[in-house]
Amino acid sequence: MNNFLSIQPAIFCEPCKDCGARPVVEQSKNGYVVRCPNDKKHYKTKAGLVDITDWNLKNKAHMPFVASPKQKAS
Ligand SMILES: [Zn+2]
């Protein structure tokens, strides 16, 4: 059973880079995980504190610290 909490609309979140969904917070036994509500294989943060900053970094379409464009999936 899923135990998802929605993130307040005032908080900026990048959409899931795989499917475009707004992330949710899942309460796991190890803490909170920011994840895609549609697929557990999409990016999720490590369990602990709610880490929307990490989610936003990993789901940015253009990561500023990636120097080479070779890794582009699309
Ligand atoms: Zn997704």
Fold topology:
Layout: E1 4-6, E2 24-28, E3 31-35, H1 52-59
This protein binds zinc ion (ZN).
Zinc ion (ZN) binds next to loops.
Number of continuous helical runs:
1
**Roughly how many Å is the radius of gyration?**
13 Å
The strands making up the biggest β-sheet line up spatially as: 1-2-3
User: How many individual β-strands?
Assistant: 3
Taken from the alpha-carbon principal axes, the silhouette is: globular
Helix content: 10-25%
Distance between the termini: 33 Å
Q: pLDDT under 50 segments (min length 5)?
A: none
Class computed from helices, strands and strand pairing = alpha+beta
Strand fraction equals 15-25%
Question: Largest sheet at a glance?
Answer: 3 strands, antiparallel
Bound molecules: zinc ion
Textual characterization of the structure:
Helix content is 11%, strand content 18%. It has 1 helix and 3 strands. Strands 1-2-3 form a 3-stranded antiparallel sheet, with no helix packed on it. It is globular and about 35 Å long. The N and C termini lie far apart (33 Å). 16% of the residues are buried. The model has no long low-confidence stretch (mean pLDDT 88). It binds zinc ion (ZN).
Task: Give the key terms.
74 residues; alpha+beta; 1 helix; 3 strands; globular; binds zinc ion
